[in-house]
Amino acid sequence: MKKSLSIYGLCTCLLVFVGTIFKVLHWPNGTVILLILAPIFVSLFLILYAGHLSKTTDKSKFAIWFSAIVLILFIAGGSFKMLHWPIAFHLLLSSSILGIIDFFVLLVRIIKK
Description:
Elements: H1 2-24, H2 30-56, H3 61-82, H4 88-112
Helix pairs in contact: 1-2, 2-3, 3-4
C-alpha cells in the first residue's frame, strides 16, 4: 500500500507540474489539467493518505481526517478562485479559519504530551 501510494503521489505531482507548464506556456488544455483534474487527483491522494496514516500511526484519527478535509477545502477554494466562481471566497475563508483552529488544536495536543 505504501509503495502504490507513493507512486500515486508522484503521478499527482507530475500532473500538477505538467498542468502548470501547459498553463504558463498557454498550450491547449492547460486549464483543464490544472483546474479540474489536478484538484481531483490531489483530493483523492489526501483521502488515501489520511486513510493510510490513520491505520499506521497512533495519532488521532479525527485530527488526521480534519486536516485532510481542511486541505481539500483549500484546494477547492483555490481552483474556484482561478475560475472566478462566486463561492471561492467562502471556501477559502472557511478553510483558513478551520486551518487555524486545526493548528491550535494540534499545538495544544503536542504541548500536553
